[in-house]
User: Fold these one by one.
Assistant:
Number 1:
Amino acid sequence: MQSAFNIWTDKPPPSKMKLTHILIRIMLRVTETFRPKGWVVTPDNDPIDKTQRPVLVVPTFYSIFMECPPAELKLALSSFSIATLFGAIHCAGWFPKVHFTSYTLSLAWRISSTVITGCPLIWSVAIASLYADENYGRSGHYLGAAFRPMHRAFLWMSILTMPVYICSRILLLVIAFVELQNIPPGALMPIHWATVLPFIQ
Amino acid sequence: MNEASTLTRTNKTARAQAVATSDISSGSAKGDFKWTKTHGFFIQMGGFMIYENGRPKQVLSWKKFKEHYKAGRIDISTYTEDSINDHSKADGFAKGIAVIQTFWFITQCVVRLAQKDLTLTELELATAALAVLSLVMYLLWWNKPFNAQVPIAITISQPHCVDDHTQINVQRNSKGKIKFPFV
């Protein structure tokens, strides 16, 4: 039985990183000044190996570069699906059970929660179509030609939605605290578990 | 005599490498060592430290680890998953309690949303979303050693130095200048 480790180590060294997403590049440029050292590791700037003096402690946000485009895709898609789940829970604010002090705030919550649910989906499509374009774009299949315009379009949508996403997240947090000024009586009542659990009452 | 010693060393190196390599391939036959997700987390945390002359020299990166391991310069057969988990301050029990508490909060939020006479505040809703995120985080990081402070010392055996010398020997032999570094 061959372990997975053997498969990795016996592999020839990767020729070149393929999944260099322009979006990630732009994000890197934008966050260059803000991000902690070693947050995003590419083969070119591994903060452990590429420094002059020896490193005895790994930077806080250090992570290993995976050298494997499908794994990067998997990572991106799973992260974005978790982000979608995060937004979808906020969408529970659409229920009339969640009380708002004003219609404006209710509308703001609904719009923001929709935005933070939808944006990660757009980003997923952007990443997936980029991967599809890089790997199957020149395969000759009639669908292959569609990947490039698709990823261009979704890339621009991603870039445009990013500030909207950030604003929505901040807005949701602010609304959550602002709504504390008027707490409905039902929010202060304890849960009577006997009425909740079925077949007990 | 010198040639013989060099040869012996090379031979030993080759054997050491062969042994190491066979250890990799027959790792499962040996029974104990298996490369696990815990190892992956630990090396990413900088948990493996290269020691030289008894002092820490450099964090072992994944890339360097693969290089050394392929060349047979590292013996990791004793660093089992259990020995790495020994560096962790939280076991499955401690993590399980945290998961249960988080899950309990989410359950309460769901009930508040479902019950007729109860309401859910927006702050609870936002917190529940974060709680779900932390649940996911706990599941993903279940195997990650928690709060490891002391790295595992790795010493790199130096067969490659002997190899370098033998290469020099061969080159000089071909040029006709025979100088032996080991006198």
Number 2:
Amino acid sequence: MSSELNHLLSLASAGKMSRRDFVGRAGALGVSTAMAGTMLSTAAFAETPVKGGVLRAGVQGGQSTDSLDPALAASDVPFMINSTWGETLVDAGLKGQVEYRVAEEISSNADATEWKFKIRKGVEYHNGATLTAEDVVATLQRHTDEKSQSGALGIVKGIKDMKAEGDMVTLTLNAANADLPFLMADYHLIIQPGGGVDNPAAGIGSGPYKITENEAGVRTAFEKHANYWDANRGFADQVEVLSINDNTARTAAIQAGQIHMMNRVDPKIVEMLAGNADVLIERAAGPGHYVFIMECNKAPYDNNDLRMALKLAVNRQEMVDKILGGMGSRGNDFPINAAYPLFDDSIPQRDYDAAAAAEAYKKSGHDGSPLILQVAPGAFPGAVEAAQLFQASANAAGIPLQVKLEPDDGYWSNVWNVAPFCASYWGGRPVQDQMYSTAYLSTADWNDTKFVDPHFDEVLIAARGELDQTKRKAMYSELALIVRDNGGLICPMFNDWVEGRRKEVGGWIANPAGSLMDGKALSMCWLNA
Amino acid sequence: MHPLIKLVVQRIALGLLLLLAVSVVIFLGVEMLPGDTAQAILGQSATPEALANLRESLGLNQSAATRYFTWLGHAVQGDLGKALTNQQDISHAIGQRLGNTLFLALCAGVIAVPLAIALGLIAARYNGRWPDKLISGVTLATISLPEFVAAYFVIFLLTQVIPILQPVSMVFPGMGFLEKLHAVALPVIVLVMVVLAHMMRMTRAAILNVMQSAYIETAELKGLSPMQVIWRHALPNAVAPIISVVVINLAYLVVGVVVVEVVFSYNALGQYLVDHVAKRDLPVVQAVGIIFAAVYIGLNILADLIGIIANPRLRHPK
Amino acid sequence: MRIPLSALMGMVLTGAFVLAAVFAPWIAPYPIDAAVGKVWEGPSSQYWLGTDTIGRDILSRLIYGGSVTIFVALVSSLLSFGMGAFFGFLAATRGGWMDTGLSRLVDLMMAVPSLIVALVVLSVLPLNLTVLILVMGVLDSTRVFRLSRAVAADIAVMDYVEAAKLRGERQGWIIFREILPNAMSPLVAEFGMRFIFAVLFISTLSFLGLGIQPPLSDWGGMVRENKDGLVYGKAAALMPALAIAVLAISVNLVADWILQRTSSLKGGRGG
């Protein structure tokens, strides 16, 4: 049974959703009406949301420098904290759709250049004020204006004009974008009173929990927001986010019951945790991928034969097995996998081929000087080990790959996007357009492979405004092939989210869009007695 | 003025000058590091516009000299300012974390120092015999473990095998004293394991070094028991090396325990410093750096003082 | 001269480690970088000490890693000792401005957080073993300075040193002939400790990115690479930790014996 169905079932059996709604939504998941009825009656006792208690999450990725300003959130702990006190217009749904939150209706004009968001009535902030359409506009403006420091700036700068009328927000775009609603699910774009202009780090929002104590990089405690609008979220009386950066300590804490859920279980220890009856492992195949990037404009990586030689010299299965402990899938040198809508699964999988790699290397005419792959432990979990596997498999094909260990300190400013060949990580985006536009468009700020192809850009922009899904899918296949065969991306693997929860935690639905149920685990789960 | 008091006054005055020098060195050091706060905050999501905007709002466009003297001007008036990264009030955050740092160091020191000296005395008393070998072997084994290994070992033992303690040690303002003690039990055990051997070995070596002196022989001839000889005659003459090693370890307990803090998620100064160095958050790095420097300078003064007091020849220089 | 059993054991083990390190390419069963097995295999007849986090043979990596670990730790602790003890003695015997200057300089060096020092060095100097050894030696020498100055200050006011000064002996003679022999015991004990700290310090610096480059790894670094398997008793993490412990104990057994000998050198009883 799918986890979404599971969640619906638990909501319905707890009386949070009408029987009719359940049957309707289960039908959308391919369950017959009769079947849905049976499921509902048998599951009535299985999963009933329980109110009360203190639910704690142990999360890796917090620092004492963290801010509550959603514009500055960049790692898992602030992401989790912000998702608990704040809400965005929409969430990324489980089936490649958007789920309405602060917005309750979205519509667009025929060519997808103008979008209207109807704002839900009666949504209340923790300070007692009511959320208005003006707040939404002010929030988006804060993230888009010239003074913005927001991580979402690149996402929302295609908006030409925004206005609020009554409960309606209208966004006018520079160019057609069929995916605009997905962009509004970005975790930076939390709606704040007055747009958060006066005090961006106040931590006051409209989410199910309000902050009672906050020590950056240590612990954030919340209590239930009494007037929260959605009865399907916010079951525990209090929730806490504990920042626990050490893997072993975090694992020990969940085993000892000090926390109820954790992110980033080291895939290598999953097998050993399986012996513990109190802790369940939750996996979700997401869009995140571990990569090695070559800058296509710098010698010797400006030679596509050399790039191809390196792509062929990666043993992807070995990396999935050893770096991800099998908890992931092989990459195919383009940044998209089955987690995205309109993914083309007919594109042939590239694999380790020492002979072909050697041939491509020979064809490239490279002078045999070492190819230096720069890597730091923090590039992605297991980056240094992955680089060494790469080195071994490349050397076996006669390619003089050499690993250079860089310090974590300053890696993202001194090495990534600077060095011609280095290790990196992409978390993925909800839709293909956003991923390609972020890092593969010639003019993209984060075009870390320095990939320039006018035809690619043309197709990408055309696909953005294309409303015919079949045509759109074909366009994305073309883009994928271009990056796969000509780009500077070596993508050996997509990593699954591997997370842990204690058995008394109910209501868990794996959501591949982000860690810990896309940040909603504390809001949507409950503690069974 | 008594020469000792004069010495202390002199050293404290010099110490203040040293603190100034430390602040300059730290400032220059952090300035030399590649990248700045704006870049570090935005990380992988840095766009050129966002960077420029953030730099301006953080005041990073001003010259280094302006920034240093502005900071110094405020700091001497007791205003440490706000963290660049999250606008947190530095005095408030440091106040809390310094308390936690000292609490942990104190708990570990109170156990480790007397224990190490006692074990050192016993080892010296039974030099070469089995108690000496046992003490040496065990303490050497614990000190040769990297800190995180010792930490994982006690986590495994005391939260999984015998579940009596908690692996996450963070403490909050609202906690009672006993609650805090319970929370820090694991890191304290680890720190004791880490510092014990050094002090114990030095005590043993320093005692053995003076045991050959003529006055020890005299004392033995007087018929004192071996332990009395060590305690009354050998120890006072072996104070200087012991105290200097004790002080180095105490300083370590305050300044150097970041690995233990990270493993146990203990919210103290070490982790706070490391996070802010990574973000090039100068006001915070300066503030914590000055505190750590003061700890070293203060403890070194204390060590020199005790060394002088313990030795009559130094106490009354000719 | 009779060498006690413990010292003999220490010497044999230390010697074995050094020999293994020197002859690594001949005795290691597998190349250092070859992923020959599965992840975290236990000890077997094929891989005597098991395999690491990406399936490399632990024994081979220990043998190769031993050379860099022992070499760097030894040279840097000798350096820190030479520098620290010399300046410490100098400060204690000369006194005056020399003492004040050196002591306060050391205060300053100790007071600047070593994380910042390490990162600055990392950003301005090329990364190689020489730099690594220098950084470790200089940082550590401050601690040795404090100890040797304290010990020497006690000795410098002894009658026999006073007498030597009155005889008009040179500074060097006083330091090497009068102070050094009488300060040997604490210094030898300290050396044993410093050596262990150096072994552990390498792995910290490697982690920061300063120093040992893959596929080579020092022993502390090997423990770190495999640390997530530690509480599950994975050989990959335990074996290098064990190697460090055995090395530490061996070196200190030898130090103990030297300590015994130096105590007796002073002409007391026993020894």
